[in-house]
Amino acid sequence: MTAIPTLNGSALAQWACKQNEQAYKDVTYNDPFVMRPIAEAAKRSGVTGIAQPGSAMLKKIEMAEAASSTDDKRILWISDISTWSHNLSYACGTVQFD
Questions:
Q1: Which of 13, 56, 63, 98 could be 50's S-S partner, Cβ–Cβ 3.0 to 4.6 Å?
Q2: Which residues lie closer than 8 Å to 81 by C-beta, 6 or more apart?
Q3: pLDDT reported for residue 96
Q4: Cα angle 58-59-61, degrees, rounded to a multiple of 5
Q5: What is the pTM of this model?
Q6: CA gap 43, 58 in Å, rounded
Q7: C-beta separation of 85 from 23 below 8 A
Q8: What is the DSSP string of 32-62?
Q9: Residue ranges of the chain whose pLDDT lies below 50
């Protein structure tokens, strides 16, 4: 798992955006293990437009991690992680960073 840097605000949001972009390149945007630090950083950044998709993605990650591997809903939650990753990617392209 990638460690979240000790950044705040827009710097942390930018880090989350770059990591999310890398997850797309690596096709790991639906892996809860990869996406957890990205979602946590986005949420913790507090940046409008970035924090909300991070928070929603984090909730789906927690649900997927808590589910057993035989739980049929787990695949839906993993799919939701991909959707929130896409939403974060879109938000990263629209936010004006300092």
A1: 13
A2: 29, 30, 32, 35, 57, 60, 61, 64
A3: 75
A4: 60
A5: 0.92
A6: 8
A7: yes
A8: HHHHHHHHHHHHHH--TTTHHHHHHHHHHHH
A9: none
